[in-house]
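Predict the holo structure. Ligand: nicotinamide-adenine-dinucleotide.
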Amino acid sequence: MRVAMIGSGYVGLVSGACFSELGNDVVCVDLDADKIAGLNRGEMPIYEPGLKRLAEGNVAAGRLTFTTDLKQAVGGAEVVFIAVGTPSRHGDGHADLSYVYAAAKEIAAALNGYTVVVDKSTVPVGTGDEVERIIREVRPDAKPGAEFDVVSNPEFLREGSAIEDFMRPDRVVLGVSGERAQEVMRALYQPLYLIETPLVFTSRRTAELIKYAANTFLATKISFINEIADLCEALGADVQDVAKGIGLDGRIGPKFLHAGPGYGGSCFPKDTLALVKTAREAGAPLKIIETVVELNTLRKHHMAERVISATGGNVSGKTIGVLGLTFKPNTDDMRCSPSLDILSVLIKAGAALRAYDPEGMSEARKIKALDAITWCDDAYGALSGADSVVIITEWNEFRALDMERLKKVMKSPVMIDLRNIYNPDEMAAAGIAYYCLGRPGNDA
Ligand code: NAD
């Protein structure tokens, strides 16, 4: 099948490379000419394990190309995906749909023969209706069901394991009305269906809501275990054991039950906010999600306060080592990472920060609020002369630090582990003042 992917960011690039791997002819389009030029030189604009190899193989096989020419890409495609960004709109928390609508207009003008226009971006309920309206407005000659159809196919991949998630998803959700579009989508996803991926066909509006319901549910799980961690500290219980004890219950499941510094990334913060807005406007407010949003904001500030209190209560003039900046490991994505809020508080409180992240530093360096940070080449560089160290992201290379070396390079061996990657007893035995989340032995 001939596929055009409008937007070659995280989702567009990964989906485009994976669809080409499944044997389709894919053109990835972006309006960022530098990004496309880089892709045409074999340079990936994001760090995602396995993506470069996958893209290279399919480019070499002639199934994957990159262009800024949307008109040509859409004109030759049977299926056109919209995979552009839907960030929080400035000021009100609604999803900013300007990129989606601009793409819809351009696609409409380029339609050439029956085409299925598929929205893969995360968009509020009703966006597919508006995309259809825009296409009809730009092309009064084009009728849904005859010249085009608009489908909702939200994406659930996770950064860091995006290719595996795309190739072996738990399910594929397809919001489709009309037999013709349904057959096209079924044929496109047939290779995944053969490995028994459930294809969930539903209405377009329902598909749009499924994506938000999934993300806000997961964000709620994270906030839930973070609150339980605080309670564990107050009661002398262990949050890791609580998570294990409840996670083994099949009705609950073990994932997203790790206490941490709060959720971040390019999706959960904006999607929770957008659903809160949608629900309020629909007259059916979601009190649970409103509370989750509030808790998550507070959480990041509480984490900064913990670092300050473990570093003697006043960090003015003190040096703090920072391990990890991205919102999770195996990505270079800094969008809405908890590190941004935590480190801004520490900088304002007068701390000198030395930071290291295996993949996130080139993105982090672009962020003005982090200008004051000294960027280091490795973990021990970040610890050098530090009064304390905070682990913000659980990259594998931080899981087995040499504690003797750490003690030698730090001014005082104080560790605040916001990901609970070390064992409190072992840290006590190693002579490290160790502060973690929701576990005994924690005096933060
Ligand atoms: P991104 O910012 O990485 O990429 C978007 C790309 O679209 C950019 O490269 C931009 O230049 C391009 N673009 C914008 N308008 C365009 C146009 N008219 N024509 C061509 N290109 C255009 O965004 P992303 O992280 O890939 O997210 C895309 C969507 O997918 C969002 O709605 C997001 O919520 C959703 N999503 C993201 C993830 C994730 O993990 N990143 C997972 C699931 C869903």
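The first strand starts at residue 2 and ends at 6. Residues 211-444 form a domain with the Rossmann fold fold (CATH 3.40.50.720).
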